Each structure stands twice: as C-alpha cells, then as structure tokens.
Amino acid sequence: MNGSVTTTIKDHIAFVTFFHPQSNSLPGVILRQLAAEIEAAGQDENVKVIVLQSEGEKAFCAGASFDELVAIENLDQGKIFFSGFAAVINAMRKAPKFVLARVQGKAVGGGVGLAAAADYTFATEHSAVKLSELAVGIGPFVVGPAVERKVGKSAFQQLSINATEWQSAQWALTKGLYAELHHDIASLDNSLMTLAERLATSNPEAMRLLKKVSWEGSENWDTLLLERAAMSGTLVLSDFTRNAIATFKAGAR
Hints:
- This protein is an alpha/beta fold.
- The chain is 51% helix and 15% strand.
- It has one domain: 2-enoyl-CoA Hydratase, Chain A, domain 1.
- The protein has helices at residues 28-43, 66-71, 75-94, 110-117, 144-151, 153-161, 169-175, 185-200, 204-214, 221-235, 239-250, and strands at 4-10, 13-19, 49-54, 99-103, 107-108, 120-124, 129-130, 180-182.
C-alpha cells in the first residue's frame, strides 16, 4: 500500500512514473523518491528529456496523503512532510532538461503543483483541477509559487480561495497550466511522444539555457518553499485543521 516510483529510460527519454493505490496520492516516501529520480535523470548524460507521469487511467494525482497528514504530531514532522513537495518542485525546476508532464486525469493540491512545475504539460479533457488545501485548514503554500508562475496571481487566488470547486481542464488550458488538451489518453500519448522524441534530438545546451531563462526569478525557491513548508507544518497541528482533515477524509475527496 506504499506505492512506487520507477524510472525507465528509452531513446534518451526518462519516464519517471509514480503510483499509489489511493488515487496516486503522495505520502512522504513517494515525494522523496520522486525528487531523487528526477534529480538523477537530470544528471544522467544519456537522458535528454524527462517525462513525469502516474499510473492508471483515472486520477493523475490526489495530492497529499491524508493518512500521513493526520499522523503528524509535531512541527518537525510537519515541516519534513511538506518539504517533500518542495523537493519535488525544486528538482523539476533545477533539472537541466525539460520536464514534460502527462496529466491523464484529475489533479488535486500537490498534483496541481506537479502539473505547474513541469515545463510543458499535456492533459486530457478529464483533467480537472482543484486546490483543496484551504478546505482542510491549510493552504497551497508550497505549490503556490509554481501554480502562480503558470496561471498568474488572479487565477491562483481563484483556485486557492474556492477550494472545494473543480475547475475544468479547459479552464486550466486557458490559464496556461496545460499546454495541450486532448480528447483521450491515446491522443495525449501520441502528442507527448512526438514532442519528447523531437526534444531528444535537439541541442541539449540550447534546451538547458532556454530552461534556465524561462525559470528566471525562481532562484530563491530553495529557501522560499521550505519557509512555505513550515507554514503548512504549523497549521496541520491545529485542532481546526485536524478536525477538517478528518471530516474531509470521511467524505468524498
């Protein structure tokens, strides 16, 4: 029940795949493994482009593991858990290769952060998004900079404040979170592979420099995202948040 993270390299494309039986949610161990696999792919000279994906045909990622959230007992544990999201986002940001995200279904919370931190995100029409953190007494603090960078402050506020409502995949495309939207998974995969194979034969140095330029202004995220993790780590200890998580967990996620 702990899930998995695997990396397969084919034709200079690294496919980093995560899975968890609870709608591809993200416990701390998965977050740490994801960050490590992305960092390793970024340093592998045989890899020219990275594809981030999850298993299954339904949810792309259900966000933070609720089981792990309710088990947090002190600030240090809270900071460690939420810093896992910081590690993944920073690994994606700092990888000297483009990261393509394959979002085949709904994305919640941290899953929206992964979609936003990718350099180019493919999605299907079923890939609605929701930042549900405020609904459980926290806030999208760690993923916030990545999401806001893609969709802008106004759209980020809309997502983060209206925390119980889904926004459609078309909305996410319009706001720039998704680069492409496809009718089904087969079409998504065809388009993704076409771009990945093209990038795998492109100039690695040109791509590295282009990525560096596109991420200008994020140089402080190593510190910023850890500070944000501390915010969430503090809030998750409150009685309000614990009760909200328990209620939310008991209902439909």
